[in-house]
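User: I'm putting together notes for a lab meeting next week and I want to include a structural view of one of the chains we've been expressing. I don't have a solved structure, so I'd like a prediction I can at least talk through. The sequence is below, exactly as it appears in our construct file.
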Amino acid sequence: MSELPRDEAAERIVMGYLLAAREPMFQLYETPLTGTDFSLPAHEAIFEIVSSQFAAGARRADLTALAAKLKKHQSLGADPRAVIKALVGHHYGLEQTREAVKRLKAVTTRRTVITTLREQLARCLDPATDIAEIITDTMRPLSDATTSKADRQVVDQHQAHYEAYEEIMKAVEHSGECMGIPTPFRKLNWLTSGFFRGDYGILAGRPGTGKTAMALNLATHAAQSGSQVLFFSLEMPRQQLLKRMVASKLRIDARKFRGIGKITEDEIERLHGAEMEKLSRLPIRHYDFAAVKPYQFRAICHAECARHRTALVIVDYIGLMRPEKKSGQRYLDVGEVSEALRCTAKELGVHILALAQMNRQIDTANREPVLSDLRESGNLEQDTDNVWFLYHGEGGEEGDAIKPVILKVAKNRHGPEGKVKLWFEREFLSFKEQAEVHNEG
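Assistant: Thanks for the context. Below is the predicted structure for the 441-residue chain, given as structure tokens.
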């Protein structure tokens, strides 16, 4: 079996920088290193010792103490002081070292992929091994290896303060504006400031309230604002979704695409016009295979974020995702799926919005929905940053083309709760905000 890849030249450059520069670990924080990034045992030993020195507060590597500790390592095969002196001679400065670090991380990724595939290939040859378990054990390390978001480290107060200060200055620069990915609704943007990366939210409603239509309206608006969107449609094929999107944007009765009613000449012109062309070029990608499992969802999101810098992920709907292994208890299964969505949002820095059902009891209850009305509510309540309920408002008659609906922000980890009054245009599958005056002070 062939030897695993390595880059000894890059290792020596990094070693030289660590041994000769001041505060090198802080300077390299953007690309954190670990001992496993070094293929040579001597380099790994030196890295671990020097790292512990900086962790203890040193501003520069203590070469004398390093030489004393290296005497115990048989891997050197030479006088530790001579080895250290030779490595110090490879100090070429910060920028060249950062390039060497990138080379090391790339080689580490290759080693991880090769090692993982070798291990799982051996397991695949055993017919007694559960193939689903092998796939899970393969995808997790591979997705970790191929995304920089997996490379995290603990940062000190100074660095955290600097990052927070940059975000505060952005808020100062755009004071009063929606800071996240905007929604089509002014009051909702005021309550939430849009979709924020790293957050995980739920949009819940009973069947027939327009959850999927709302999700499409949100996705379209986000894409028109320049954000990359990934839409998991686990309930209906993408062609149906696109028909709904066309109906909403071109103002054509969606039923006509199912043969109910005649499409007019004016509508045909719109179907061949500029708006249709713009709609076809929106940065939205679709995944419409049913019964996706958490490891598949995570792997797809990793790949899409790496290729397209995805900002918003919508899942329609969470109840159709399947756990890795069914527990026999629905709330545990939903809890596993919800935890996977929450972790993926945080890990990749995307906003994940999952559609969910409300309990049937709300149909007969004469009250507004509350968090406990979420089906299998325990984990969804705890895991999410935001929970929105979509339900029928007061007024309107059965069969009305325009119906009043309420979008209730029932949980908002970053701001106030509240309600947004909307009109649902059933024929166009579109939502419009009701004109109202609200206090934004």
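A couple of points you could mention at the meeting. The chain has 16 helices and nine strands. The first strand starts at residue 200 and ends at 205.

User: Perfect, that's what I needed.
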